[in-house]
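Recap from last week: sequence in, structure out.
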Amino acid sequence: MPEAVLIIKESNPELISDEVREIISYRPHWIIRKGNTIFLIVIVFLLGLTWFIKYPDIVKAPARLVSINPPKLIASRVEGKLIRLFTSNNQQVKRGQPLGVLESTADYGQVVLLRYRINEVMDSLLQKNFTIVNKDSLFVFTGLGEIQSSYETFYSELIQTRQTLGSGYYLKKKAALEKDLQYIAALKNNNLQQKKLIEQDKDLQTKEFSAYESLANDKVIAPLELNQYKSKLIAREQTLQQADAQMTNSDINGHNKRKEILDLEKSIADQQQQLHTSLLNLKSQVEKWLQQYELTASENGKVLFVSPLQENQLLASGQPLFYIQPEQTSFYAELMAGQQGLGKVKEKQLVLMKVDGFPSPEYGYLKGHIEYISAMPNNRDSFLIKVNISKGLVTNYGKTIYFRNNITAQAEIITDNRKLFDRLIGQLKQVWER
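Predicted structure tokens:
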């Protein structure tokens, strides 16, 4: 460039102005002089990146999170005030633990004590121990409300049972009858011994009569004397029959005593059964009342309030109050995938789920793997896909998503994680084949 300026200047110096001379003498920037080379390097670099960068094929589908042991909802069964609250939010509870009490005409403390007394009595009755009914302080309740009528029925049977068993009349009478049976048995044994003696005496009289009968046949003694010995033999026979009659009377008396004992035992058993029946009816009424007015934990876990609660708060019938979050549970997702792209979906493929209500930029997404694909579509022409969430409801950001019933998500099934280079080549092939 300077040589050309020098030639023009020497041949015709007046033709070159200062501006032209400045432009002609300007040296371009290195990026302009080396631009083609740099552009080629950038293109080669980007093509190299396409070999390493992968972009997945995605099949999208709506999902629903499901728990094998989901949180249990506890709701009020009647309309009224929450007169007692025994728990707080996030408190650990045990199965059957009272959480609160709703308003009722019955006194909650008396109902709970009555349930304890009923269980105490039932345990004794199952062991055939009726001495517990004699406790004076066992049942004294006056504030049971709608249970009061069932309680009064039971209390009436309890008083009757006390009169039957508590005073000991029936038991003493039974003991007396059993003693009579012992006397009758002893008397019968005595009669049996007497009968044996009479039979021995009869045998002797029979032998004596046979001897004198032989003498009478031989004309040694007179027939009148033989008749005297025969009369003695007949008298012994009558005595033996009387002994048999006495033994029969002893058997009859013993049978009658046993019948009296059976009747007495039946009366006792009937009264015990009536007491037991009324006790079961009272227990049923108490359990029904507690089921209606007492709020209890359905299983071991953590209490989660649906909304803020306080005592004397008015509740509507069926109003949700608590959730019991089980201590251990597992989760999976149900996807309803359409037929588009379904052929790419296979078991063990990765699934990313963005939970509705928990924005993915803040909470991240859940990971899972396909465990099952249904072979038949449902009535909406969609296929059920079951996804196993092995790490639970912990997102890739390390945040835990609280499970709620019917919580939904948007799922993305990673069907093929191909390289960008392969995708580019595939697009070029499609363009070339057209």
